[in-house]
Write a structure and sequence with these properties.
By secondary structure, the protein is of the alpha+beta class. It has two helices and five strands; from the N terminus they run ββαβαββ. The chain has one domain: Ubiquitin-like (UB roll), CATH 3.10.20.30. The radius of gyration is 13 Å and the shape is globular.
């Protein structure tokens, strides 16, 4: 039986606690966070780009490797509970690929 390739994603909570999650290639970063039990990702809309409760700040070198946020994502980032930064993204809009192995993201202090 073929197993999907996996990559490692590092989530840094607002209290600086780091959690590594193994994630499937092709799923969204939000889906990986939810499957990995990351409590700092609320994901209220389930990834439909309507809630901004999956806000993360992407560390380099990965931030510059991602495609830029489209207009809808940029608009939703205006509604995050913690003000967005230049490194802010909605994790539902980041599709995991082999190039993102080792991705590190920070979680805001609150999603609400």
């Amino acid at each position: 039986m073929f197993k999907s390739p996996m990559i490692t994603i590092n989530f840094i909570a607002a209290d600086a606690h780091s959690t590594a999650v193994r994630a499937k290639i092709g799923q969204s970063l939000m889906e990986a966070a939810v499957a990995g039990g990351i409590t700092g990702i609320a994901a209220d809309c389930g990834g439909t780009l309507t809630c901004a409760t999956c806000h993360v700040m992407v560390h380099e070198p990965f931030a510059s490797q991602l495609p830029p946020a489209d207009g809808e994502e940029r608009a939703m980032l205006a509604f995050t509970a913690v003000p967005a930064t230049p490194a802010s993204r909605l994790s539902c809009q980041i599709r995991l690929s082999p190039a993102l192995d080792g991705l590190t993201v920070e979680l805001p202090a609150s999603q609400y």
